[in-house]
Amino acid sequence: MNELYITLLMNDHSIIEKALVILEKQLARKKKNWTTIQVLFEILWDYGEKNHNMKEEKVYFPLLLERGLPQSGPVAVMLQEHEVERNYLSKFKEFLSKSEKTEEEIQSFVSEFNDYASLTKDHIWKENDILYPMGRKFVQPDDVPYLANEFKRIERESLGEGAYTRYKTLVDALEKESGERIDLLASIPTEVIGNMLDALPIEITFVDAEDRVRYFNKLDKEKIFARTLSVIGRLVQQCHPPKSIHLVNKIIEEMKAGKRDEATFWIHFNGMYLYIAYYAVRNENGEYQGVVEMVQDVNPYRALEGEKRLLDN
User: Please, are residues 41 and 93 in contact by the beta-carbon 8 Å criterion?
Assistant: First the structure.
């Protein structure tokens, strides 16, 4: 069943969450950019409150209750939290409208915003991980297009055509302009990132924009295709047998030209059934930064049937 309505709701959440994280970083600065802060709060009010919350309160929640979800269940909790968020945002709007702000008022504002951000992030998690999956059991096939169409109508009537694209572009621009790009790896030590990649049942190799090998995982572990430190810095063409160099060059050339984002192959090799994939790595502007090669023995998965929901002893 095509669940576009859930995608639309979760796309809203992604914009709201990004605005929250940028605001957290902006408000943690000693010298605050109040213009950027004002715009981000307007996004939370216009896109979050007038658009997203109304999709849920006017369409989604009533439908779930009509289909049998208990009135006293998660919908009641979500509605209560919407009201708390609304009160916070109204208070913040009043504060931001002041031309003069004392240091004490600013500190109180930042403290209350942190409470609001914590509440809203937790609220989004509850909806994404609990309410929406639960709601699937109550939403009927005919409800799916109805929900998607109603969500689009509310967004169009409250914010105009193409609102999602406009607001996503705006948040991305504010993130870039303020230097507050969200980096989920920033708080993880390189050693842990390396161990994390080594723990995966795949082999990964990264080749940079100049076609030179810069990384591979499982350095000291057994590998499907042998690699040693001597390949680091070498041209990727020097790391493949002559008969396959033309194919390597074709993949890279097409990725650099923007004509291809991936290339996949599967072969029999030493009793294994290998899935080999190449993925173009690009920055937020779409500029080519290199290619990741992934290799995995998929033999263990080919015979899977049914479901496995229990942990092995």
Answer: yes
Compute and round to an integer the Cα radius of gyration of the chain.
25
- Beta 203-208 vs 213-216: how paired, if at all? antiparallel
Q: What angle do CA 121, 125, 127 make, to 5 degrees?
A: 115
Q: What is the mean pLDDT of residues 34-44?
A: 94
Are residues 130 and 234 both part of a single domain? no
**Mean pLDDT, residues 33-56:** 95
pTM strictly above 0.90:
no
Q: Which alpha helices (H) appear in 97-241, and where do they start and end?
A: 103-126, 132-135, 143-159, 163-177, 190-199
Do 166 and 194 share a domain, yes or no? no
Residues 35 and 162 in one domain: yes
Q: Is residue 263 part of a domain?
A: yes
The answer on pLDDT for 304 being more than 80 is yes
Is there a single domain that holds both residue 269 and residue 143? Answer: no
The per-residue pLDDT of the chain, averaged, comes to 92
Residue 188 has pLDDT above 90, yes or no: no
